[in-house]
Amino acid sequence: MKKMVERFLIIVLLGSTPGFSQTPVDSLLNFFPLQTGNRWQYRVIHEIDFTIDTSYTMFSVLGDTVLSGGRVYRILNGHWDRYFRIDTTALEVQVFYPWDTSCPDSERTMFQLAIPDTGHFSDCAGFPVWYYKGYQPVGLLPYDANAHVYTWYDGLTHVYKLSEGFGVSFWEVSELGSARGELVAAIIDSVQYGQFIVGIEPPPGTAAGFELYQNYPNPFNPSTKVRFQIPRGDRSEFGLIELTIYNALGEVVKTLASGKMNPGSYVYTWDGTDNSGKPVAGGVYFYRLRAGKYSAVRKMLLLH
User: pTM for the whole thing?
Assistant: First the structure.
């Protein structure tokens, strides 16, 4: 898919046969296994500007942390840290967004595990969520599993497949281009599935490759900071490193960085102006980091 898709946020977590709502609680929780030491490796395919690039990425559960409201969250580490907890009473997967003030305690329901075969609900920010169930392959692994399908709209398109016993086995993000991840291998409760692609993980405390992080604050007014990481390596392989802001039509608004850069962590501030220095209208914007074959896009919201 090479066409920019910016109209829908679809989260696909594919799942289950009729009567799934009667599945025992332990089985429902198994759709999102968050035990410390669990790991997932994905093959990531990027499609942007009519080019296709393939890479690999790893996510792992590092342990617990206490955040807003004294709640205990699991730390999921990968391209960025995410904080999840499972509400075992409501059977919901909650994610903590420190920049999100639209939901109580900056916590948003990402998945509802005990759902009928089809239906819909709205999250705390008011975004509608549609869902259904199915029986689907588990990424690139030679397994099939029950899974859940959610479709939720907030102006963008995201797809996730949540497979029983494995967690997220497929995801897709469509913004200025598209990126999809297919599960290659996993370690769940000390049991390995599939074959890990070796040589892509960083030593502790270092970056595996280029990393484009979520801007902070987000939403923002009047300015926000964008951070990215450049790995060690031959700079000739990277080419020019460009950090660019786009509007919802895909038009360039501002170039924050362009040139050769050394390995390390960089932070740039966007003050909500275009390349001519004029303030831009409030709304959804995107920022993209490009370096050789690497390309990543994230969304941000400017408030006025």
Answer: 0.59
- Check if the beta carbon of residue 194 is closer than 8 Å to that of residue 183: yes
- By the 10 Å C-beta count (0-12 exposed, 13-18 middle, 19+ buried), 298 is classed as buried
Q: Are 242 and 284 contacting, i.e. CB atoms less than 8 angstroms apart?
A: no
Q: pLDDT for 148-194, tens place per residue?
A: 766 655 555 677 788 889 998 888 776 556 778 899 999 998 888 98
Rounded CA-CA distance 65/79 in Å is 18
Domain ranges of the chain: 20-194, 211-302
Dist CA 180 CA 47 (whole Å): 9
């239906």: which residue's tokens?
A: 119
Provide CATH code, domain 211-302. Answer: 2.60.40.4070
Instruction: Tokens for 36, please give them.
Output: 């410390």
Q: In angstroms, rounded to a whole number, what is the distance separating the alpha carbons of residues 200 and 238?
A: 17
Vertex 116 angle, CA 113 and 119, to 5°: 100
